[in-house]
Amino acid sequence: MSAPAIDPPATTARTGTVVRIGRVSGIVRWRQLVVPLTAVVVLVLLSAVSLGRGDFPIGVPDVLRTLAGLGDGTQDFIILELRAPRVVVGLLVGLALGVAGALFQTFARNPLASPDTLGITMGASVGAVAAIVLSSGGAFGGALATLGIPLAALLGALLVGVLLFGLTWRAGIDGYRLVLIGIALWSVSTALVDWLLTHAEIYDAAAAYVWITGSLNARTWDDAAPLAVALVVLLPLALGASRALGVLQFGDDTARGLGVRLQTAQAAVVLIAIGCVAFAVSAAGPITFVALVVPQIALRLTGGSRPPLLASGLLGAVLVVGADLVTRTVLPQALPVGILTAVLGAPYLLWLLVRGRRQFT
Amino acid sequence: MTATVAPVRGSGAAASGPRRLGRSSRWIALLVLVVLTLAACLASIAIGTRAIGLGEVWQVLFDSGLSSEEAVIVRQLRVPRTVLGLMVGIALGVAGALMQGHTRNPLGDPGLLGVTAGASLAVVLSIVLLGIGTPSGYVWFAFLGALVGTVLVYAIGSAGRGGATPVTLALAGAALSALMYGLVRAVLVSDQQTLDSFRFWVVGALAGRDADVAWQVAPFIALGLLLALANAPALNLLGLGEDVARGLGQRIWLARTVGLASITLLAGAATAACGPIAFVGLVVPHAVRAVTGPDHRWLVPGSALAGAVLLLTADVVGRIVARPGELQVGIVLALIGAPFFIALVRRRKTAGL
């Protein structure tokens, strides 16, 4: 099993207020309420600003009016058809990656476990890069080309996800084994991507590299729809699995003793996480480091004992939408959003680490 | 020294996990690895686009008077390449074992400490700003980048109130690597020419290196190995938890600094010479730990030899499968190594860290 040092942080220093209403009482942990609520507010503001900015600027009040169905034709078209899909895809992808990262990190009891390190996003990259690079030749390449990049990515991610699940499963899933097999799958996928890139024409390689970085350019409602449907199903399931996930942290025997159906819970958590990642990556590419960094930021902001699911998802959405806004407005040259999520998200986590309000060991 | 090590031996033997080998069988395992390493070296010298018989290899190696075509190939191409592969394999295996010990995380590959990201950033900058375009030209930039990367990670990881704990080190490494890779990607996405050079470096290969590269990085790897061997007993103590280690008289910061310096030298030199090869550092220690158990005094030498065997074998296979061309060693490693590793993980309970 994992070493004591990478177990979830000690829970001693929690802040909470005991609230008593009649005969019912409970602890309200304010930070666990304030952080998601703040994230929602920031997310709405960022989205509104993001919808308004571009070659044809539209003020925030007009944006809100359009969203309420009261805008004029031009603004409707620009906001609802051109800009909204991009913002919505960014939001959903951030949400999905944040939740998936929190699920993996909690399940494996390892702050480094994420779809990036376990190979799932790399599997998507294999699919997408193969579709880009091999599309010019051969029967296999032709088949991949007709499949299209999003579907190839989805299949790649699902394939690695299924392999990860199938190879790890031995009457249940051990977090440690999940991590080790994830490493191996990551290595293979990375090697395949590198090999494909070295054998590609340079312009294909450049296009593939942009995809690997994760980009929201030219997204349409067609990209958003599958992800939205997947999340409508998966998010409630993830939140429902949250309690079992908390109990799983105490170890298999304790969890069983507390009445958790161990195998069902383990399978559910891992499969939900894989599903979230696969659809997110298919929509926008592996927007890097969101799933790795955001749950740790959320953990440090809420001060709980494990990365909170909802807050991780919301903060992931804030990061992706915010990074996209920065790439489109502040920077002289539009970079793929995946670069900015790393460049903005990583320093924030570093700052939280240095400040070290609490000792998370 | 022996006094501080004694309690570890007890706890190591009592730890749950796969069957423990006795002292003599561990010696035998090491001996087998030594033999395998020698065999891999000979194979690496003999096999290639032009196959050279073992007898001939032997003659050329021990008779400096020969000047046949085979002799030139062996001396100027195969031997430097084999020496480089041997050193890099040893360096990566040891660096991986130390890294997993210090971060106490099975995902701890040496690159996590910022080595790979720092080296990548330095290589990209050397291509963009100075127009360098050959693997031999990158060596010092990559090494410098690796050094700067690790120093930054260590500085930030130990700046928090708790000092350099496994979790802060791992997270600082992951976050800082993310940042540096972000910068690398920013350049690569906007500059196609740089991507064209970089994509061949990032695969990781032994081919196309000058004969000098091996000798350039050799002193750093030697120093790193010495530090690693010195660090192994202390790392066993740290594995008991920092409080226990401190109680047993271990100076935590000293152990951490020595260990991280060793990782930096080893992984930095290896990455500088061959480009990033993640697989060896990541997987070899897990495989070796399954045999030796978590005692770092066995794990470090075992990982060194196993790393060398794996890297050399993968390099030889890469020469055979894609004749007359070659498949880069980084790719072969993952493709052959991963299924083997998965089988190992599934068949027996791997030892915890």
TrEMBL record, chain A:
Keywords: Cell membrane, Membrane, Transmembrane, Transmembrane helix, Transport. The keyword Transmembrane applies. GO terms for molecular function: transmembrane transporter activity. GO terms for biological process: siderophore-iron import into cell. It comes from the Bacteria. Pfam families: FecCD (PF01032). It is a multi-pass membrane protein. Belongs to the binding-protein-dependent transport system permease family. FecCD subfamily. This is Iron complex transport system permease protein. It comes from Blastococcus tunisiensis. The lineage of its organism: Bacteria, Bacillati, Actinomycetota, Actinomycetes, Geodermatophilales.
TrEMBL record, chain B:
One of its GO terms (molecular function) is transmembrane transporter activity. InterPro entries: ABC_BtuC-like, ABC_transptr_permease_BtuC. Keywords: Cell membrane, Membrane, Transmembrane, Transmembrane helix, Transport. It is a multi-pass membrane protein. It comes from the Bacteria. SUPFAM superfamilies: ABC transporter involved in vitamin B12 uptake, BtuC (SSF81345). The chain crosses the membrane at residues 27-47, 82-99, 111-132, 138-157, 169-188, 220-241, 253-278, 298-317, 329-346. GO terms for cellular component: plasma membrane. The keyword Cell membrane applies. Pfam families: FecCD. GO terms for biological process: siderophore-iron import into cell. It is found in: Cell membrane. Belongs to the binding-protein-dependent transport system permease family. FecCD subfamily. This is Iron complex transport system permease protein. It comes from Blastococcus tunisiensis.
